[in-house]
TrEMBL record:
<feature type="region of interest" description="Disordered">
    <location>
        <begin position="1"/>
        <end position="125"/>
    </location>
</feature>
<keyword id="KW-0268">Exocytosis</keyword>
<protein>
    <recommendedName>
        <fullName>Exocyst complex component EXO84</fullName>
    </recommendedName>
</protein>
<feature type="compositionally biased region" description="Polar residues">
    <location>
        <begin position="76"/>
        <end position="90"/>
    </location>
</feature>
<dbReference type="InterPro" id="IPR011993">
    <property type="entry name" value="PH-like_dom_sf"/>
</dbReference>
<keyword id="KW-0653">Protein transport</keyword>
<feature type="coiled-coil region">
    <location>
        <begin position="149"/>
        <end position="212"/>
    </location>
</feature>
<dbReference type="Pfam" id="PF16528">
    <property type="entry name" value="Exo84_C"/>
</dbReference>
<feature type="coiled-coil region">
    <location>
        <begin position="393"/>
        <end position="420"/>
    </location>
</feature>
<dbReference type="InterPro" id="IPR042561">
    <property type="entry name" value="Exo84_C_1"/>
</dbReference>
<dbReference type="Pfam" id="PF25345">
    <property type="entry name" value="PH_EXO84"/>
</dbReference>
<dbReference type="InterPro" id="IPR042560">
    <property type="entry name" value="Exo84_C_2"/>
</dbReference>
<feature type="domain" description="Exocyst component Exo84 C-terminal">
    <location>
        <begin position="459"/>
        <end position="658"/>
    </location>
</feature>
<keyword id="KW-0175">Coiled coil</keyword>
<dbReference type="InterPro" id="IPR033961">
    <property type="entry name" value="Exo84"/>
</dbReference>
<comment type="similarity">
    <text>Belongs to the EXO84 family.</text>
</comment>
<dbReference type="InterPro" id="IPR032403">
    <property type="entry name" value="Exo84_C"/>
</dbReference>
Length: 683
């Protein structure tokens, strides 16, 4: 095989013998003439070949290769026909580029692949692929390089516009979905809140069931070992009482404490009756040991309560004494010591004593350490290996843990109540003076009220108060008055919830008074503008401060009279001075009555008449003082009084007639006979 391969060569063959020989290069000084009968190319062909800047190679001598080369070099390109006339065949005009772009933008290429959907370069323009954009592994840089790598500037702009349209459509769809799901979200939130409340109720019921079951088991254990409490306690804890303890646990605990008071003398001094106190375990008879020698001192009995540990000593009963019952037991229980469970520590002494005869002396002993003087006492069960010791230690640990848990929950509830009080008091310091309302703040924090068919908590009320404070601070009177009216109507509608009603009413009243002060100040400042006065009075009437508005307005008008009358200066002409003073008084009174009638309710008109009468009396005082030097009944005196009465006749335009009151106190001629008081002069 290798020999056959060696005989085959690409350079061997019969054709290689007749191939032409390439001569060595030689230097030329003139173009080589074109012979062998080759026609000269026309000028058009020469011009077409000029950009190549190459001269034609001489044809090789004879053979098929030379014939092909001759044929190649003899081809003509762009030869103009002899009968071509440019005037008869004009060149067509170029298409309008703007119309072409508008057609491309207005009618995007279809997905059918027809000729109308191709771009200017004969390819389809890039399109936005939504599936690719939704891909979680989408790579923006790679996508842009692939799609827009060969795109023109116009195509990139069209692609950008398409992306913007897609973004706007996605945003509109998202907003519409949010609006559609808002109602469902609110409904689900209400259902979740309702479910949360039901689960909380279920948890409380389960805890109560657990407590009742534990109490029933404890009472059952106590009934089995009721010898230490006497026959009365055994009778009280019958099967019928144990069955009813689940429904009336408080009665069972009270019965336990009464039996304990009766069987243990002096126990009520250490353990006064309180709600929830009950006996957890009667540990039976124990022996108190000496702390140094561990010798027996006296017989004891231990009672474990839910919050205390009671130690009672056994003493012999006096039978021969007066009034003694000979049929009773020979021993009695006397309360000796009592500690709170959180003040003492119960230690198992099983591993601390010395062993004698193969058994530890303190194997069945416990040490109670603590109290006010930090004393320690050792107690041992009467029976060796008595299970009461283990049960007592376990019950003490469990009771202490439960007691600490209850204290922690009470502490948390107290802190929560303090936080609630501090929260509301910081927003409304006036609450600190409402002690009854402060006590209920912890209960109303999570209270729900119905507002326009929706359940809202008091946080919503606080948000409304915040909005009201903002309106008052910015002096937006109309929105503030409308919000106060809404909150007042809300509070009046809570007839079945007096706590929430008092809370909302207190907050609204405090802000209502603040807003009324602001409006009254504005009323006083704009007392001369009837339009502003009417607007301010309307606000005060809506707030329920119409009396305050009336008093403030009339007082402001009195100040106007005093201010204007002080501008009248006496310069020697008494008649002119009285004319100016009377004109000021009665003109201001007339304008005040006109404004009062248009701004205040009709039932309040009597207050305005009373005010006008007081101002007329004040004018009479000035008139009497000025005419004191004039002769009564003289020309000057009569002329001044008549001028004043003439000005007083202006009040008849508003329904008042005070002409008889003018000059009453000036002289005896104007005094009412008999000293009778004159009326207000209503016409």
């Amino acid at each position: 095989m290798s020999e056959e391969r060696s005989k085959i060569s690409l350079r061997s063959g019969g054709k290689r013998k007749n191939r032409p020989t390439i001569s060595a290069p030689r230097q030329i000084s003139a173009p080589i003439p074109q012979d062998n009968g080759m026609p000269q190319p026309p000028p058009e062909a020469t011009m077409a070949d000029e950009p190549r800047m190459t001269r034609p190679r001489p044809p090789p001598p004879g053979g098929k290769t030379s014939d092909l080369v001759k044929k190649r070099y003899s081809t003509r390109f762009g030869n103009t026909p002899t009968d071509f006339d440019p005037s008869s065949n004009p060149m067509p005009a170029l298409p309008d580029l703007e119309k072409y772009m508008q057609a491309q933008v207005g009618s995007p290429p279809s997905r059918g692949g027809d000729a109308g959907g191709l771009g200017p370069m004969g390819r389809e323009p890039p399109r936005v692929d939504i599936r690719t954009l939704r891909d979680p592994n989408f790579a923006p840089e790679q996508y842009v390089a692939e799609v827009l790598g060969e795109a023109t500037e116009d195509e990139i702009r069209d692609y950008e516009d398409a992306l913007k349209q897609l973004k706007a459509r996605a945003a509109a769809d998202l907003q519409q979905n949010v609006y559609q799901n808002r109602t469902q979200f609110i409904k689900i939130s209400k259902e979740a809140e309702k479910l949360k409340g039901e689960m909380r109720t279920l948890r409380n019921l389960m805890l109560e069931l657990k407590t009742n079951t534990t109490a029933l088991r404890a009472s059952s254990n106590s009934a089995d070992s009721s010898g230490g409490l006497g026959p009365e306690f055994s009778t009280r804890l019958s099967k019928r009482d144990r069955r009813s303890s689940i429904t009336d646990r408080t009665a069972l605990w009270s019965a336990q404490m009464q039996a304990l008071y009766k069987s243990v003398e002096g126990s009520q001094k250490f353990l006064p009756n309180s709600q929830g106190r009950h006996v957890v375990q009667n540990a039976g008879p124990w022996i108190e040991l000496d702390n140094a020698t561990y010798k027996s001192r006296r017989s004891m009995q231990i009672f474990l309560l839910n919050d205390h540990l009671l130690i009672a000593s056994r003493k012999k009963r006096k039978i021969d004494g007066p009034g003694a019952d000979a049929r009773g037991p020979m021993t009695k229980l006397v309360a000796d010591r009592c500690w709170h469970l959180l003040d003492v520590e119960v230690v198992d002494m099983a591993g601390t004593g010395d062993s004698s005869n193969g058994r530890n002396k303190l194997a069945d002993a416990i040490m109670v350490r603590g109290g006010g003087q930090n004393e320690s006492f050792i107690y041992r069960t009467e029976k060796p290996e008595d299970p009461e010791k283990t049960t007592l230690i376990l019950n003490i640990r469990k009771t202490v843990e439960e007691l600490r848990r209850n204290l922690q929950s009470e502490r948390d509830a107290t802190n929560k109540a303090k936080e609630t009080i501090n929260y509301f008091a910081s927003r409304d310091p006036g609450l600190l003076q409402k002690t009854e309302l402060l006590e209920t703040l912890s209960d109303i924090k999570d209270m729900l009220i119905e507002v326009d068919g929706k359940q809202q908590n008091l946080r919503w009320v606080e948000s409304q108060m915040d909005e009201l404070d903002i309106n008052i601070a910015l002096q937006q009177i109309e929105p503030a008055v409308a919000r106060i009216e809404m909150l007042k109507n809300l509070a009046s509608g809570l007839k079945n919830n007096m706590i929430a009603q008092d809370f909302i009413s207190f907050k609204v009243d405090e802000r209502c008074a603040r807003l009324a002060t602001l409006v009254v100040r504005e009323l006083v400042n704009s007392r001369n503008d009837q339009k502003k006065t009417k607007r301010n009075v309307t606000w005060l009437v809506r707030l329920g401060f119409e009396d305050r508005a009336r008093e403030a307005y009339l007082e402001a008008r009195s100040e106007v009279i005093q201010k204007r009358s002080r501008h009248c200066i006496f310069q020697g002409d008494l008649h002119l001075y009285i004319w100016e003073i009377s004109f000021v008084y009665f003109m201001v009174i007339r304008n005040t009555v006109i404004c009062f009638q248009s701004c205040f309710p009709p039932p309040m008109m009597s207050a305005c008449v009373k005010w006008a009468k007081e101002e007329v009396d004040a004018f009479n005082v000035i008139l009497a003082r000025q005419l004191s030097s004039a002769e009564e009944g003289g020309e000057v005196w009569t002329e001044c009084v008549n001028r004043a009465k003439e000005h007083a006749s202006m009040l008849s335009d508003v329904g008042l007639d005070f002409r008889n009151l003018v000059g009453r106190n000036v002289g005896t001629s104007t005094t009412v006979p008999g000293g009778a008081s004159a009326g207000l002069g209503l016409s």
